[in-house]
Amino acid sequence: MDRIKFIKMTAGLLPIPFLSGSLLAGSSKAQSPEPDAKITVCPPYLKKGDQIGITSPSGYIFLNELLPAIKQLNSWGLQVKIGRTIGQRDGTFGGTDALRVQDFQEMLDDSAIKAILCARGGYGAIRIIDKIDFSRLRANPKWVIGFSDATVFHCHIATHCHVATLHSKMCNSFPDDWEKAPALQKDTILSIRDALMHTGKMEYKSIYNIYNRTGRVEGDLIGGNLRTIENLSGTPSGIQAAGKILFLEETHEYLYNMDRMLWNLKRSGQLSHLKGLIIGAMVRQQQRNPADELNRSIYDLVSEKTKTENFPITFDFPVGHIINNFALKCGIRHTLEVSRQGTRLIEI
Amino acid sequence: MAITVPTALKKNDTIGIMCPSGHLDLQNAKDCIDTLQTWGFKVKVDPTVGGGFHYFSGTDQQRCQALQGMLDDKNIKAILCGRGGYGMSRIIDRLDFKVFRKHPKWIIGYSDITLLHLHLNKRIKVASLHAPMATAFQPNQDTSYIKYLKNALHDRKSDYKIPADPRNRTGSATGELIGGNLAMLAHSIGSVSEPNLKNKLLFIEDVGEYLYALDRMLQQLRRSGWFNQLGGLIVGDFSTTKDTSRPFGQNIQQIIEQVVAPFSFPVAYNFPVGHQPENVTLKCGVLHQLKVTTRSAHLVECR
Fold first, then answer.
1. Do A260 and B220 touch (CB under 8 A)?
2. ipTM associated with this complex
């Protein structure tokens, strides 16, 4: 009963994303307390000579591990500012909670810094997110970049600031020797440049999977790491996926755990009223005892929870903890086209 | 709406045993069945006990029907879940509590069953027993704690007094008990089964989780407001936590201390609840008083 009530509530929100284009721009409703009524702001794209800050809001990382990324960013014509968390360590974290807050905050507030790149994921963003003041980000937008644990930033910023962010590889994924790196790895790294410096509209392809559900939709992208999204459920950073194209990826989790997380999404209404669903790499941890393994595929687990909906679904999309992980602009409108010929996601 | 507390069991009442989640070998239920019979109860064993569908004790439909059947069967006066594991999340929204609401009975279990306790508490408003399951009755371990389940079924007042842990935060609070497995508590957040924690006494336990994962779950509880108006916190067993190759840097007590630092409710550590033989029976939804002093932690049912 209450479930129906809940679905009705989310259904009530549905028309808002339709209106969120030009109709409401500049009108008083843009200040409406309903967050999704706000139009997402796209931060200025980076130009040669612009500065990008590197910080470690989650796990610790040392400066020498950043060198390949710094070299590559420099080759794109970007200046790099190394945050004070780099080289710092507090247990598993890149410095104390206070230091990680300070580093991130300084980069947010420094108008000379045009983008903030998370050095790596790990764990820790959730511990500091409430202590970071994002109140000036919407007026002075800049790109926040990362994935995995950085999903906290994508979701929090989407819900609170309505500013676009970049879901992409981080410093620890840049190849040590660019010349010898596989073409696919180079392409994924260069997709960060293409997205940040706006060399053209982003476009992604993946091959047809029989579990896909075909269709063509338009919507803002939202998503990231499934575990992190579940961890934000019910909190002030929880996502509002209705009316959007949701993408999910996961790594190093047992299949039963992925199933449980997907149930949380379903049971909290996040799989209703999506425009589309993109499933990236779902890298599973094998059970030591094969008898403990769930007798399902990730395709089954997603399909069973979305069978009463009719939005398009695409699997094996090139996003996640794999080499084939391309930069995706969260909060930016895309066309998702899932057909027998394959899947295309195109920035509008 | 007040919580309904199921009535005490009488001699020759029937307890149903079923497995709503993971598979359990029938032989591992034997000691449980025998013990319940020596306590004077009849036992009805569902085919999901000893049944198997790969990891699960049956298909989703079989598990759901088994639990539904026992919820609706007026001759069954209590339902003991044979085992946890994983699977409750897959069937909980298919269960119909209409008959159960009118004829409530004790539902017994922990771990994965936590989700059912939360759901019963929030949506159905019926008290339930966070208590040992089938394998806890096997004599190759300390079985002294299963007597608390017997006490609860006979409607004896809960009264647990344990020596103080030096890290305890003193104070006292009165409220309804709720809690269970931390991963399942976090899993409920945002869903229709998420409990309301205002003035409640929350107990938590977990098994085999990484320290960073436990921290993440506790951060979620904090960020969802669970601690804002909490009456008191009871920390159960976390003895089997794991650490990552990059050590987390804090142990579980430090993690909890840091999360609860901004609040002032009493906290009792090392409470005998969790995936160990030292697992008392806790009545979810029933009013208790928690008194934490420098000498002891005392949890007593109010009646």
1. no
2. 0.94
